[in-house]
Amino acid sequence: MTFAEQVALDMANIFTGVFVESATYDGATISVIPVIGADNEKGNTFANNGSAGRGVFWIKAVDVQWPTPGKKIVYNDITWIVARVLATDGVTHKVEATCRESAWK
């Protein structure tokens, strides 16, 4: 088994576990592993001014070929905006997203 095949198998097993939640990406239902950070944290997507909630979502590449900045993830009735792709291995994408962005702290 190649390393890439082992990574794919490992991630397939992780996405069947207790950490998996349901969300929507651009209107389509997908499985994610959410890591929700602090809410109302200083700074927003592109500047140190204002505030925003921050989170990281692990998304399967078969569900979303390439997450696009500005697209919406709705998780637990909160709309998150994709800020950037932090990492990808061809099987999963690690995506940073923000919610409740404000120009004021």
List key phrases describing it:
single chain; 105 residues; mainly beta; Thrombin, subunit H; 6-stranded antiparallel beta barrel; 1 helix; 7 strands; 11% helix; 50% strand; elongated
Descriptive overview:
It is built from one helix and seven strands. The chain is mainly beta and 105 residues long. It has one domain: Beta Barrel (Thrombin, subunit H), CATH 2.40.10. It has a six-stranded antiparallel beta barrel. A hairpin with an 8-residue loop joins strand 3 and strand 4. The chain is elongated, with a radius of gyration of 14 Å. The chain starts with a helix and ends with a strand. The mean pLDDT is 84.
Radius of gyration: 14 Å
**Fold-level CATH name:** Thrombin, subunit H
Distance between the termini: 51 Å
Q: Provide the spatial order of strands within the biggest beta sheet.
A: 1-2-4-7-6-5
Task: Summarize the main sheet.
Answer: 6 strands, antiparallel, barrel
Total domains? 1
Provide the residue-averaged pLDDT. 84
Name of the top-level CATH class: Mainly Beta
What would you call the shape?
elongated
> What is the H-and-E element order?
HEEEEEEE
Number of helices: 1
Fraction of residues in H or I helices: 10-25%
- Strand tally is 7
Describe the structure in brief.
The chain has one helix at residues 3-14; strands at 21-25, 28-36, 41-42, 51-60, 72-75, 78-88, 92-102. With 105 residues, it is mainly beta. Strands 1-2-4-7-6-5 form a six-stranded antiparallel β-barrel.
